[in-house]
Amino acid sequence: MLGQERGLLYVDCERRTDLRYASCDPRICGGAQAYHDLVECLRRASQAPNLREQSEAERLCILRAGEAGWRLDTEAFREVVKEHLGGGNEHDVYLDVGSRRVVKVTTSTRSFGARGDLLSYLVNLDRCNRFFGDAIRFEGFLGREDGDAVVTSQPMILGRPATQDEIATFFEGLGFARSDQPNAFERLRVGGRDYLIADARPDNVVTQEGTGLVCPIDVHIVIG
Question: In angstroms, rounded to a whole number, what is the distance separating the alpha carbons of residues 93 and 102?
């Protein structure tokens, strides 16, 4: 599975009824083809000759995906997702009590994740699913005055921030070694490609209550 770029974020809306704001109403729920079109549009946008044109092309991709059904119902979202868990530089974090899923809304409508562009953001989430079984889902876009924020969700994990030693033991058990970069681990030449796990700090890794399992919840996977 390592190195494949198949999209695993999208879930058919017939299976998404646990999130009531992302119902099967076609007005507020995109489909597999619309998600595929979004990713392909973003790939083309990333090939624009400069950052300004890449940004403009990305905004057009988001607009088209919203019109195709991936823009969530703002009022329904606010009615269902009320419990604010906190947040940081990249996300506001909520709990959907009904589904027991953590819902993340990007704080910016212009820059997404560590690298900024939406394609890299989605690709990283897909890699996290494949590496760690995170079950992260792309839920759509939430309209704001200045653009569209990205909404994702993942299962709620009860526990505490992992210690630095727990994090190191976890990644070393997967064959990674400590990197010279802070909070990073590297695994060189897997299938002919280099891998780096970045931002693996206690805020982004949870030790599960009761089981002691170490669970990365918000790291970055870089493939060289």
Answer: 7
